[in-house]
Amino acid sequence: MLKKLSAEIFGTFWLVFGGCGSAVLAAAFPEVGIGLTGVSIAFGLTVLTMAYAVGGISGGHFNPAVSLGLAVAGKFSWKDLPAYWVAQVVGAILAGGALYLVATGKADATVGGFASNGYDTLSPGGFSMTAALIIEVLLTAFFLIIILGATSGRVPAGFAPIAIGLALTLIHLISIPVTNTSVNPARSTGVALFAETAALSQLWLFWLAPLVGAAIGGLIYKLLWNEKA
Fold first, then answer.
1. CA distances from 132 to 48, 72, 120, 175 (A)
2. How confident is the model at residue 155 (pLDDT cuts 50, 70, 90)?
3. Which of the residues 15, 33, 189, 199 has the least number of beta carbons within 10 Å of its own beta carbon?
4. 205, 132 in Cβ contact below 8 A?
């Protein structure tokens, strides 16, 4: 279990530092910055690379919603869920802290939103709480369905991280303008703690919506496509 939890800490750290770091450090320069597309690709690459690196140790969840959805689908032990959640949040907070130290390492640095998630005035596109709730539930549900399908016995071994990474890239391309894209409560927590906005006051939605969406996705897969059904 220690190896599994350490893998989840490292994997979640890489997801938050790489994905949010691309937004905080590299997307802020209009002339040479990577933009929305680059940030979306970066998030996908973090999951893809760490799924190959440590996925064989812990399963490569790196996300409390993923762990919950897998448990609902019968692919993960409920008794291990709390420990995984703790490891994932720890990894995300460590990444947020490391990114904060880098981001503030220049004169007159301002942290601002710090790639945090939000709705209403904290939404990049000014989208409402209802819009944020819907898109986070919907996209997390589909993310779980993709994860469960890609890791099923129907798919050739070794290709799952590619499908999962591309799915996360697509999810970000869709929803960055709406919520800055969460689908991952740990990712949301890790940067909200350091943001100079009211991100913490809206963090509840980015726990509730991804967890609900993941449970829905896990249940849909279990009922309709579970290979053991």
1. 26, 23, 9, 9
2. confident
3. 33
4. yes
Q: What is the pTM of this model?
A: 0.94
- Of the listed ranges 15-24, 84-93, 218-227, the least confidently predicted one is 218-227
**CA separation, residue 177 to residues 49, 62, 116, 192, 197 (Å):** 25, 23, 12, 17, 17
Averaged pLDDT of the chain: 94
Nearest to 26 by CA among 13, 39, 14, 15: 39
Q: Quick one: tokens of 218?
A: 């896990």
DSSP state of 204: T
Residue 76 contacts by C-beta under 8 Å, 6 or more apart in sequence? Answer: 59, 61, 67, 70
> In the numeric block, which tokens belong to residue 15?
């997801």
Domains of the chain: 2-223 (1.20.1080.10)
Which whole-number Å values give the CA distances from 31 to 41, 144, 150, 210, in the listed order?
Answer: 18, 36, 37, 34
